[in-house]
Each structure stands twice: as structure tokens, then as C-alpha cells.
Design brief:
alpha+beta, Jelly Rolls, Arc Repressor Mutant, subunit A, 2 domains, five-stranded mixed beta sheet, globular
Amino acid sequence: MLRPPPFMRDRPDLPSDPLSDVLALLQVRSGAALRMTAGGPWALRFPSYPYLKFIAQLRGALLVQVEGDAHPYRLEAGDCLLMRSGRPYIAATALALPAQDGPAHFAALHGDTVTWGDPDAADGMEMLAGRFEFDALQRDLLEQVVPPELHIRADAQAAPALRALLALYGNEAGAPDAGARLVTDGLARIALVQALREPGGAQHGWLAAMADPRIGAALRLLHGAPERRWSVEELAQEAAMSRSALALRFRQLVGMAPLQYLQAWRMRLARQALRDEETPVATIAWRLGYASESAFSAAFKRSSGCAPGLYRQKKRAGDAARFHQPDGGLIDRITS
């Protein structure tokens, strides 16, 4: 069942929710989860990846060294790490060791819970690792919203709920029980929301903009009425800022000017509607606040490189070609 576009709200009287809008476009769903226990010193190298990865540290400590970063992340019991950069990384208890090939290591193991060494030793550890899948056509939106890596410590506000959700996720992922896929999809989305709305989780970027009382208010206005012909002066007045202060702070956090953001968001909504609906182009143009179909088509072509009708044809043909692609086994899906 297709989701309605975020600008078609069932309850337009309720406050807008930009994070929900973004996640609706990303179409986050569950991937696979794997519980791992190990003991003794080890180091494994993993290749780049095209989705959101997560690690929930249940017991012991783990070091995660992402390629290009100066310092590793140290995960203690209760910590969670969300990774979307796609960069290769090393997971280890001792980074000084030569790193072995991670996928090859896991290929030699079996089962949904994998163990090596002596996990009951003093240096034993346990973690839950897995992934969240999303609409690949929205990767640039994911990169705009989610930091490359987001480390949520055990004492963070979101950590207890996040650990509980991920534990449920790990129990349901791959289970033969009826409705397991629906449950894991729901848990994946809720866990991701918990991680992304952690206060202070991001120091800059879109999440930091949402956490900023005034810039967050401006974003909610833009998402609540994308069809409106907003001016920077109106947004500044609503956010209780001067025009210049709003423009500067918005660009510092979001990376673009307020009206540039509005135009980009309109085009995202348009592409989703063209891909998922049978709605005529003229109706989409009207819903997004364009005075005419020709004005919308010109804006869409500047943004997407082709006319709306042609975009719809191409995307649907591409979706049909990708339908029923073969899927790998659990270990492959986690480690590749």
C-alpha cells in the first residue's frame, strides 16, 4: 500500500513533523539482524555498504575504526552506533591486530547467533548488528539528514528505549512467525526515530537544525505548508528572528538558503508522487503551489533533468526491472 505524500495530511490541523515527513520518503524498512558473541582479541575488516548499519553493544566493549576517521568509536555495554557513511571500517577488540576479512570470517560460521573464542571469558563481548534498508533513490536525502556516524551512549536519553527496540528487532528478524516482517519493519522505523531525535545527537546538519528552537520552527512551517509562497521575511517573523539572522543560521545548519530548501523539498514530494501515484501532473503542480502545470514542469526539469511525464515513465520502468531481485543469505546481508 502506497503512503500518501507528506503534503497530503489526514489531519492538517496538527503541527507538522519534518522528521516523519523525511522518514516517509526514505521508506525505511528492516533488513537483517545478527547477534554475535566472542572472546579474546580479534579484528575484522568490513567493506563499504549501501544502507544504514547499526551496532547495539550488549556486553563488553568494541572498537569501530571507520576509514578516514582519526579516532575509533569505543562502544561500551548499552551503547548504540548508527552508520550511514558507507565507508569501510574495522570492528575489533584490539585495533593493533592485523584485521582479517570480515565477510570471509562470517562465511565460515553458521546460524543467526554466531560465536567465536570464549565469550564467557573476562574480555568476552556480545552485540547485535544489522541494517535498515531505505529507498535507494533517496540516498541524497539520507545523507542530508543522518550524520555519517551517530554514537548514542548508554546514558543518553534515547538509549534505554533504543536498546529495547533493537533487542526485539533481533528476536524477530528472520523469525518464521506469522507477521514477523511487519513487526521488524515497524521496529526498524521506531528505533531509527529514537536514534535520530536524541537531544544533542548531531552538532550540525539537518538534525541540529531541527533541534534549534528557531530554525526548527522555520522547518516545521516549510514542511507544514510546502505549497505556500513563503518569503524569508515571513519565516523570520514566525521564528522571532531578523531576516538576516534567520538566513545566516539556516544556511549554517541546513547547508542552503530557506527558499532553496523549500524548492528542493517540493521537488522531492513531486518525484515521490510521480513515482507512486497516478495523479495527473497538473494536480501535483497545484498541490505544490505552482500557478500552472508549465511552471511546475519547468522547475521539475531544472531539478531532475527531464519533464515530469518522462520521469514517471523512467522510474516505473526501472522499478519493474528491479522487481524480484535475488537476495543473499543472512551473513551476506549483514556483512556485505
